[in-house]
């Protein structure tokens, strides 16, 4: 199951489909780290050691990781847990939910390495729980993404639930190949925003990127 760990003042360690990201809300940056580094850091942050002990342990035993965190400018703040609680209480801006790692395309540049044979998809119950918790944390915007979100078997229930929640804005990041005219009318009525990518200046150059005609 994917997870998010509060890593410090305005810092969240978020598990993505392939890699992990350190979301720095204070400086509005996202740092991507590989799967092994993310898993280690998450387990480490969740250990019972005090912030001082964690820093000392990293300095003494995990010099490359400590140096990397220092180079990224997040080393000291990674352990300021009390301040992180204050950051949550102020409300947050955007929550980005990867509903599935599957996609009907297989773009050469895809950050999630999505393609038709991938299988992991969030259950409706889990998505509902995330939407509920995001509402309670006063996120103002939610983006539903993937993979291709319209491959989720309960995508319309999820859209309806998000639109009925307290978000100011619901956006779907989609390649738009699975949305017909009726679907577009429904989305317009719900005032859902759509984000998509045009990957070339004609169909041939576009299809070279998606690897699907
Ligand atoms: S359409 Fe998006 S999710 Fe699908 S393969 Fe391309 S970049 Fe990845």
Order of strands across the widest beta sheet?
1-2-3-4
Instruction: Specify the CATH architecture of the largest domain.
Output: Alpha-Beta Barrel
The class by helix and strand makeup works out as alpha/beta
Count of domains? 2
**Largest beta-sheet details:** 4 strands, antiparallel
| CATH topology description of the largest domain | TIM Barrel
Shape: globular
Radius of gyration (CA) equals 19 Å
Ligand identities = iron/sulfur cluster
Please identify the top-level CATH class of the largest domain: Alpha Beta
Distance between the termini: 33 Å
Number of contiguous helices: 8
Describe what this molecule looks like in 3D.
- The chain is an alpha/beta fold and 213 residues long.
- The chain folds into two domains: 4-87; 91-210, Alpha-Beta Barrel (TIM Barrel), CATH 3.20.20.70.
- 38% of the residues lie in helices and 18% in strands.
- The protein has eight helices and eight strands.
- Strands 1-2-3-4 form a four-stranded antiparallel beta sheet.
- It is globular and about 60 Å long.
- It starts with a strand and ends with a helix.
- Mean pLDDT is 85; it is low at 85-89.
- Iron/sulfur cluster (SF4) is lined by residues 103, 105-107, 110, 112, 114, 146-148, 175, 210.
Task: Pick out its properties.
213 residues, alpha/beta, TIM Barrel, 2 domains, 4-stranded antiparallel sheet, 4-stranded parallel sheet, 8 helices, globular, binds iron/sulfur cluster
